[in-house]
Write a structure and sequence with these properties.
CATH architecture: 2-Layer Sandwich
Strand content: 35-45%
Helix content: 25-40%
Radius of gyration: 17 Å
Structural class: alpha+beta
Mean pLDDT: 90
CATH topology: STM4215-like
């Protein structure tokens, strides 16, 4: 087995989420999101942005190592201050977050319908704290996958 680009999962996640989740205005990388914000553009809502987070490595001493990857999939929805006791922004995000979880839990990263060799199934790893910005709320959902690595020895 040859090693693959560990960040190819970002492209695969974007492709998969575009195909699986209806009603989303934009799906892309955090680099795209940051460029929009830096240019004073308001992100189209609702939207989903994907970013790699930290990783660690498992080594069982058998010639294989696994890079355990953490991926952030952030759901952005429109936010208006709500005078009621119910956070309607969180509820809007929760519906999309459930769709994201359904689309990704157990999915093995693939591009164009072909599984990317070396990657394990995606697993749900929890949620990050919501972030409220003027006009929208961001709700991070965390997933893990593993990339099996081999050496040339």
């Amino acid at each position: 087995m040859s090693n693959v680009n560990p960040f190819i999962v970002e492209t695969a996640l974007i492709e998969h989420l575009l195909a699986e989740i209806a009603g989303i205005q934009d799906v892309g990388s955090f680099a795209k999101y940051q460029a929009q914000v830096a240019g004073q553009d308001y992100p189209p809502l609702p939207s989903i942005y994907v970013m790699p987070d930290e990783s660690d490595v498992t080594d069982n001493g058998d010639g294989f190592q696994v890079e355990n990857q953490l991926w952030i999939v952030s759901v952005l929805v429109d936010h208006s201050p709500d005078s009621s006791d119910i956070d309607t922004t969180a509820n809007k995000a929760g519906v999309i977050m459930a769709d994201v979880m359904s689309a990704l839990i157990g999915w093995r990263p693939s591009l164009g319908g072909s599984t990317i060799q070396g990657f394990k199934e995606m697993r749900y790893a929890g949620r990050g704290a919501p972030i409220y910005a003027p006009g929208f709320g961001e709700f991070p959902v965390l997933f893990t996958t593993g990339l099996v690595l081999t050496g040339n020895y």
